[in-house]
Design brief:
The chain is an all-alpha fold and 145 residues long. It contains 6 helices and 2 strands. The protein has helices spanning 16-43, 50-63, 65-73, 78-86, 92-112, 116-135, and strands at 90-91, 138-139. It has 2 domains: 1-87, no CATH class; 89-145. The chain has a two-stranded parallel sheet.
């Protein structure tokens, strides 16, 4: 007979409501982390924004409808998710903001990097992401909201 056979403190099977509550808490905490990484990705060139925000939306949908609605309603974060879900594209203003952010961040990185090989790598990455952004469909901004 084991030490915990019939022990009230360590049940062999956890109640379903405990497991579901724990799962929702973990999903919610991971969602907050993904939002933080996605927000950081807006200004950091090597950190993508959209994948983290999409993952946060999925995690919030599984854990908290209130947080999911909050994320989709955010002025600066929500449009990334809506554009991806609807496969609509980017407005010219969004493309301009992304392009300026990319150019400044990569330009500063290239300027302060002493190694020519790394400068060339950064320049190639800047060119790649610029082409990706420019190839996105340009849409007109919605009016009358």
């Amino acid at each position: 007979m084991g030490a915990c056979d019939g022990c009230l403190y360590f049940p062999r099977v956890l109640p379903d409501n405990y497991v579901m509550g724990l799962r929702r808490t973990v999903y919610s905490m991971l969602g907050v982390l993904m939002v933080a990484l996605g927000a950081a990705g807006i200004v950091l060139p090597l950190l993508p924004t959209t994948p983290f925000l999409l993952l946060a939306a999925v995690l919030f949908a599984k854990s908290s409808q209130r947080r999911h609605d909050w994320l989709l309603g955010q002025k600066h974060l929500g449009p990334y998710i809506h554009a991806w879900r609807n496969k609509t594209g980017l407005t010219a203003t969004q493309k301009l903001r992304i392009g300026i952010s990319l150019s400044i961040t990569f330009g500063v990185s290239i300027y302060f990097t002493p190694m020519v090989a790394v400068q060339c790598l950064l320049g190639g990455m800047w060119l790649f992401w610029t082409v990706v952004i420019l190839r996105q469909k340009t849409i007109r901004p919605k009016t009358g909201l």
